[in-house]
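User:
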Amino acid sequence: MAVSLQKGQKVDLTKTNPGLTDIVVGLGWDTKKYDGGNDFDLDSSVFLLNGQGKVSADTDFIFYNNATGAAGAVVHSGDNRTGVGDGDDETVNINLPGVPAGIEKIAFTITIHDAQARNQNFGQVSNAYARVLNKATGEELIRYDLGEDFSIETAIVVGELYRHGSEWKFSAIGSGYKDGLAGLARDYGVNIG
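Assistant: Predicted structure:
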């Protein structure tokens, strides 16, 4: 039975699931009725963060054009340009024991591609969620549904996987950004040029 989280809640991942080594973080969303004449393309991104909450190098920003990081321990599934259909729209595979010790947190985000030019925001998105699955069994361990109405935001930090001693925990963040990927990159120390 999956643990369902609310914004701000934290839960043990490895302590309550002994022997867990490989997980899949699934991110999903739907777009509401939208008649702006442009495609609606949401993207998931992962930031591999040190103890100061920053990336150690730009290569610690994982997304569809830089799909593998953490010495191969974190792998992004690639870009889903439509979000159509049920189930996860994009996924990230993580080998927990393989994550280098210098990475303290793994932040999962969703952004709207070209949001300003297309006049799009998360007020036009529904049913956004993150879930953590046991890769070996497919069992859903954690689920966080973003129930809040983000009316002007163009990026969201959905949640964070973080080290707590020798264990991993998951925190439901649900924090929105009005300045999209640029705001995330600035706060996490990524130079996106």
